[in-house]
């Protein structure tokens, strides 16, 4: 059996509440459910269980320290045809360092993860095809949300998640959590 998996940072209740308020201000075509809000460190795709077990062992052995994280601003991915509406992350070397270590653990477990191109974000919602006026409203709302801040909070764990694709979009399950403890 294989599982569509990713490694992410889960968000505390208070941060999710702040993000729900931001979601309410944006004209999102499809909103990410608050319990599913997360910050992805590495998307793994469909992986067979033995590789995920090797990854689990690697993540269990990973030693990294907790660090503060601040969400900041909002934007759209997808250029002229935006697909993802996101909350951004204030520049954070500890996050980048953790991401590269996590990616290395995945590669060592036999799961290819691109070393480059980490664009940290929390997906707030998704768009299918948008009419030009819908797109303009969304872009204007993202610009207006530039002053958005949530946190900082102390990131104390990362998680291995399963993603199940359904007609209403993806649902996520936490398969395992790994405390960051030096
Ligand atoms: P997104 O929210 O910006 O789409 C689970 O799908 C998580 O992995 C999401 O946070 C998703 O980011 C991220 N991800 C990164 N690359 C992906 C890809 N090629 N396909 C699906 N999800 C991807």
Shape: globular
H/E series: EHEEHEEHEHEEE
The CATH architecture: Alpha-Beta Complex
> How many helical stretches?
4
Looking at the structure, the CATH topology is Cyclic Phosphodiesterase, Chain: A
User: Which strand-content bin applies to the residues?
Assistant: 35-45%
The structural domain count equals 1
The count of β-strands is: 9
Nearest-angstrom radius of gyration? 17 Å
> What ligands can be seen in this structure?
adenosine-2'-monophosphate
Helix percent reads 25-40%
What about the largest sheet? 5 strands, antiparallel
User: What is the fourth-level CATH superfamily?
Assistant: Cyclic phosphodiesterase
- Uncertain ranges: none
Keywords: Hydrolase
Active site: 38, 121
Motif (HXTX 1): 38-41
Catalytic activity: a 3'-end 2',3'-cyclophospho-ribonucleotide-RNA + H2O = a 3'-end 2'-phospho-ribonucleotide-RNA + H(+)
């Amino acid at each position: 059996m294989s599982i569509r998996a990713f490694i992410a940072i889960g968000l505390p209740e208070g941060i999710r509440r702040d993000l729900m308020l931001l979601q309410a201000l944006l004209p999102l075509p499809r909103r990410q459910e608050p319990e599913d809000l997360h910050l992805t460190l590495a998307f793994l795709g469909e992986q067979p269980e033995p590789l995920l077990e090797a990854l689990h062992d690697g993540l269990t052995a990973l030693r990294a320290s907790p660090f503060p994280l601040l969400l900041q601003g909002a934007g759209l991915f997808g250029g002229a045809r935006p697909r993802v509406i996101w909350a951004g992350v204030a520049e954070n070397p500890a996050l980048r360092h953790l991401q590269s270590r996590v990616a290395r653990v995945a590669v060592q477990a036999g799961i290819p993860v691109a070393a480059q191109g980490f664009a940290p974000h929390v997906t707030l919602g998704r768009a299918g095809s948008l009419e030009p006026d819908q797109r303009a409203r969304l872009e204007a709302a993202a610009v207006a949300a530039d002053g958005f801040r949530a946190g900082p909070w102390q990131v104390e764990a990362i998680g291995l998640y399963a993603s199940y694709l359904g007609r209403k979009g993806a649902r996520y399950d936490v398969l395992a959590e790994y405390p960051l403890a030096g």
